[in-house]
Prior knowledge:
Strand content: 25-35%
Order of helices and strands: HEEEEEEE
CATH topology of the domain at 33-74 and 87-124: Immunoglobulin-like
CATH architecture of the domain at 33-74 and 87-124: Sandwich
Structural class: alpha+beta
Amino acid sequence: MVEKTEHPGLWPSLYDPLRAFGSRVADWLSPATEASGSKDAYDISMELPGVSEDDIELTVDNGAVTIRGEKKTQVEKKGDTWFFSERQYGAFRRSFRLPEDADGARASASMKDGVLHVRVPKKAPEEAEAAKRIMISRT
């Protein structure tokens, strides 16, 4: 009798490099971002040089901030000889899950010097309810 040997980790491990490669490409094409928090709010800053405010869509939905946009080419030069180009063009999308205490309904955004700044205030801490004595009724 031949015993069947299974390798449960074999097939997923073959695809892991492809999954990792895909996420690395997405990270490479995504704008550089910083996220921080203070006692009052959460802040997200994203570098978007050359992106018009009109080409950015910012939404807060289901506890997440999503920033979508597109960096478009400015001018097409014909007849130039290109030696190299490190500029990136195209659409991007980044989503950030908000903590429970974030108040997405009061989020605001501004843009200065090619950097998008998103501020999400924190909800006011709920005041602790005073202890309440519950009387037991006799039936």
